[in-house]
């Protein structure tokens, strides 16, 4: 547990909740139900982004919330103003409440998860378990949503593309930006532009410069006579990088088919200034004026100058235009320079793309063919444009050992009653076959032994399954104040996520019409559930 | 300024930025540009939600950020690990940087604003002005987006509907939830379910109970013999509320056409428990089992019992089903009870609706006809489903007094160069006519005097305008460390927002195909801008 991030947003506290949790707690207390033992399941009903899987995230934050769950005197004073007429003794009770009376089960953070499977099960005194609802939902919903989004971008772009999260400026608030950086890294990204996220969560931070840097230079004269750059290796020799760059610009103009007079000299000055500052990390934005007639010529001129004094440039970034066309065109120009000048590495300079990219853009670029090595992705990644919320819910499934069901006109919204165990069954090829929900009292499935599983809602859908491996999904992480499992570092979570996704069959992961993963119940749980359902549902009357 | 909220998320700090701001600052410093005086404009290019207006929000947070803008030793240590090879003296410079050298102009928080108009103009040393970019964008983008969304819900629902924000559980992180509560209140909502937001920002908090409260009771016996409720007024007399409720259930069954045996007795117990806890605030969720055959009968029985001992019930909440049909049906049942029992107020009990409501749902309900008094709105409001990000940008427009322009293939992305003043011109009827951008050196428009205004991009679009009132929009809020204007309380901002929207012509506000509001430039700025544009844009060659 030494790897846990020390950070948690200070606003994660018991008052970060809906008022109705407090009013309900009061009504439970007032009606002598404070010692009733409740079981709540936290789950979602539908995978996001028209996909068929979700990455579960937010466990560490939930555990920290449980550890710190305590109403302060100031909280109580405020609540008294909001709830006049409430029995004073309730506030004494509330003041003493902690998560020490609860057992909380979690699925491991970073695993792929599916609809209707409890991600968290909370068991304990009814008012206390109730009071956790909103905060747990808040901590799980966005974390899981954005981790899933990141994983989808990773699947779309393939394993060899560098993915950078650039979303802070468009995120839904400061903390939205931080969470995005953290959970995108976990979901499969390689780094972030967000410096604070880098510091707090040990994520690689990346970035070069913006258009403003380029437009801040109007011409070479604005370098203020600052032209000299030392040769790499510390020989003490220096070179006039302006002189070199102007020479190279001239040299390559015929090869790259541009007119020297038409390249923007402010842009050239900016690139030189950047090279002087970061000779080892020369990667610049080339679309401020005109990519092919100014940006790339200027870049090549400076990169060749750097080469002459021992440095190897990194590459360029495109932030507008037709990314497939431009990246291919740029790659051709790099190849041409590589060949003409006999500098092989010039061919494989990095091309970063970063203009309003979403999952579909990447797929479309792949179909068209492109030469991009890396994407910088902001808005659509962090705000989850395609579906900005994951609909996790928190439902009461048992009280004092009696199962409870929430009915609905919409069958999909009916809850699966009772305290349950969840098992993930693996096939012989190592892929996961099915998640099975079973009553807590049932024996767990056994490897190599046939098991009858059922669709929870459709009687005719039944199957036998014979697992090669059985994994217990819900684990007792929080045992009345004790944390029973270690919480991995973010890098470990990233590996776990990657591994979990790799166990999922390809057809569940594809972008278009993926096959739904089967979530099933045991025969016993099926019968139990439907008995309770019928006993709670009055027979309708058509009128 | 005594009204300012003391709260600011601790993560709002100089490191909450993109790494490239730091690398650029270094390159400016390294190339002797640290004392260049830059002007940056922060603006957006397109109103959100297919609308034609935006509410500007986040000013107070930006000011607090400016006040606290200071790199700590710990920040510097971290940056050194991220940027090896950077000249040590730069970090000494960075350590000394503050916002005290800047002038920052803001439009008043809460005003309606439009594309291309600078909402913030930052003027000062290039590296320092640059370093603010990401954080300012982050603080303005979501705040303005969600305030605008709230304002649109208010316009759709009309002035007499109570609007409550219920979004915490689905918000993009803890802070997303808090910001949503704050800026939705400003944008036109009446309250929130978010207790911490209530405490921090003095927003009315609302809430009753969830389905879990209802399902936690299986029958009357679970009231544990707790049946007595004192008469209102402190006479000391008490009544058995279970006995009363069962009596009333029987009495009204023939009027409301339900079967007493089919009403859910667990639900009745839950309602009684809630009434015992909150006799003065009896508002319950009626759709756990069956709205018309169980929820409403049980509600009416308990409400009539409360009436018998002096209390007036508040109403019901619907969280599923056909809200138009159900709300009308429920209103009819209330009217029937009001008439049969001679209790006039029963007819006007509150009907709250809260199932996945968005702007279109409200419009559609209005078209169908409904009987809803209040909406509780979560997911779509706070995550801004229709468009989860506002695309504010931060562009360099001048340096050392020289104008700078950012060109683009997309004309809409070309920036308007130079330091500017912004004026809002009003017509005789008090509505706003046009926002005009003028060069900082120009004389301001005068009331009653004709002014030539131009579309910034289309030469043929010109008009004369004669304003009745002229308002200066960009104000010097932050004058080198001094805050020159008071920052209103949240309630004052709410009033300002409401007033500002009321000055906007109806056709700009309508949901379907609203008329674009005109943002114009003066003739002088038009000519100035196009001269610079042409001098920076090479003539293309068709090939």
From TrEMBL, chains A, B:
Q: Which residues form the Nicotinate phosphoribosyltransferase C-terminal domain?
A: 419-528
The protein's matches in CDD domains, at most eight in alphabetical order, are given as: NAPRTase_A
Report the residue ranges that make up the Nicotinate/nicotinamide phosphoribosyltransferase domain in this protein.
314-415
Query: Which PANTHER family is this protein grouped with?
Result: NICOTINATE PHOSPHORIBOSYLTRANSFERASE
One protein family per Pfam: NAPRTase
Give the originating organism: Bugula neritina (Brown bryozoan)
Q: Where in the numbering of this chain does the Nicotinate phosphoribosyltransferase N-terminal domain appear?
A: 15-141
Q: What EC number(s) is this enzyme filed under?
A: 6.3.4.21
For biological process, the GO terms are: NAD+ biosynthetic process via the salvage pathway
What SUPFAM superfamilies does UniProt report for this protein, alphabetically? Nicotinate/Quinolinate PRTase C-terminal domain-like, Nicotinate/Quinolinate PRTase N-terminal domain-like
What's its top-level EC category? ligase
Q: Which Gene Ontology terms of cellular component type are present?
A: cytosol
**What does the UniProt function comment say about this protein?**
Catalyzes the first step in the biosynthesis of NAD from nicotinic acid, the ATP-dependent synthesis of beta-nicotinate D-ribonucleotide from nicotinate and 5-phospho-D-ribose 1-phosphate. Helps prevent cellular oxidative stress via its role in NAD biosynthesis.
Q: Which GO terms describe its molecular function?
A: nicotinate phosphoribosyltransferase activity; transferase activity
NCBIfam families per UniProt: NAPRTase_put
Keywords per UniProt: Ligase, Phosphoprotein, Pyridine nucleotide biosynthesis, Transferase
State which pathway it belongs to: Cofactor biosynthesis; NAD(+) biosynthesis; nicotinate D-ribonucleotide from nicotinate: step 1/1
Catalyzed reactions per annotation: 5-phospho-alpha-D-ribose 1-diphosphate + nicotinate + ATP + H2O = nicotinate beta-D-ribonucleotide + ADP + phosphate + diphosphate
What does the UniProt PTM comment say about this protein? Transiently phosphorylated on a His residue during the reaction cycle. Phosphorylation strongly increases the affinity for substrates and increases the rate of nicotinate D-ribonucleotide production. Dephosphorylation regenerates the low-affinity form of the enzyme, leading to product release.
Family statement: Belongs to the NAPRTase family.
The protein, known as: Nicotinate phosphoribosyltransferase
């Amino acid at each position: 547990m030494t790897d846990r991030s020390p950070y948690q947003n200070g606003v994660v506290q018991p008052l970060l909740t809906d008022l109705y949790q407090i009013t309900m707690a009061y009504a439970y207390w007032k009606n002598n139900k404070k010692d009733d033992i409740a079981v709540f399941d936290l789950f979602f009903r539908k995978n996001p982004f028209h996909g068929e899987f979700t990455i579960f995230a937010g466990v560490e934050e939930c555990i920290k919330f449980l550890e710190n769950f305590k109403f302060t005197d100031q909280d109580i004073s405020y609540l008294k103003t909001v709830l006049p007429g409430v029995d004073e003794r309730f506030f004494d009770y509330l003041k003493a409440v902690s998560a020490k009376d609860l057992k909380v089960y979690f699925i491991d953070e970073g695993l792929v998860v599916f609809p209707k499977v409890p991600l968290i099960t909370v068991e304990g005194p009814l008012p206390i378990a109730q009071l956790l609802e909103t905060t747990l939902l808040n901590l799980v919903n966005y974390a899981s949503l954005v981790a899933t989004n990141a994983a989808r971008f990773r699947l779309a772009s393939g394993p060899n593309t560098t993915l950078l999260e650039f979303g802070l400026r468009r995120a839904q608030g400061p903390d939205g930006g931080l969470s995005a950086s953290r959970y995108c890294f976990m979901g499969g990204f390689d780094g972030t532009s967000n410096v604070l996220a880098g510091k707090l969560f040990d994520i690689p931070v990346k970035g070069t410069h913006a258009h403003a840097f380029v437009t801040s230079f109007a011409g070479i004269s604005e370098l203020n006579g600052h032209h000299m750059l030392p040769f790499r290796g510390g020989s003490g020799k220096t070179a006039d990088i302006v002189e070199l760059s102007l020479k190279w610009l001239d040299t390559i103009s015929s090869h790259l088919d541009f007119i020297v007079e038409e390249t923007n000299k402010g842009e050239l000055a900016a690139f030189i200034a950047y090279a002087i500052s970061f000779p080892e990390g020369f990667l610049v934005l080339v679309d401020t004026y005109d990519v092919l007639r100014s940006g790339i010529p200027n870049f090549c001129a400076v990169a060749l100058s750097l080469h002459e004094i021992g440095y190897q440039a990194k590459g360029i970034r495109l932030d507008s235009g037709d990314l497939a066309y431009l990246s291919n065109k740029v790659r051709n120009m790099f190849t041409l320079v590589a060949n003409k000048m006999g500098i092989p590495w010039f061919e494989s300079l990095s091309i970063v793309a970063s203009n309003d990219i979403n999952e579909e853009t990447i797929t479309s670029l792949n179909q068209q063919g492109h030469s991009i090595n890396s994407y910088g992705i902001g808005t659509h990644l962090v705000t989850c444009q395609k579906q900005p919320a994951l609909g996790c819910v928190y439902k009461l499934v048992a009280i004092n050992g009696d199962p409870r069901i929430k009915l609905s006109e919409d069958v999909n919204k009916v809850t699966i009653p009772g305290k349950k165990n969840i098992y993930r069954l693996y096939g012989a090829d190592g892929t996961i076959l099915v998640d099975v929900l079973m009553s807590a009292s049932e024996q767990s499935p056994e490897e190599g032994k046939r098991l009858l599983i059922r669709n929870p809602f459709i009687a005719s859908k039944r199957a036998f399954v014979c697992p090669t491996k059985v994994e217990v999904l819900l684990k007792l992480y929080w045992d009345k104040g004790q944390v029973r499992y270690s919480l991995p570092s973010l890098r470990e979570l990233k590996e776990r996520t990657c591994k979990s996704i790799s166990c999922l069959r390809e057809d569940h992961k594809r972008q278009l019409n993926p096959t739904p993963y089967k979530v099933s119940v045991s025969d016993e749980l099926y019968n139990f559930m439907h008995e309770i359902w019928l006993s709670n549902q009055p027979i309708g009357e058509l009128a």
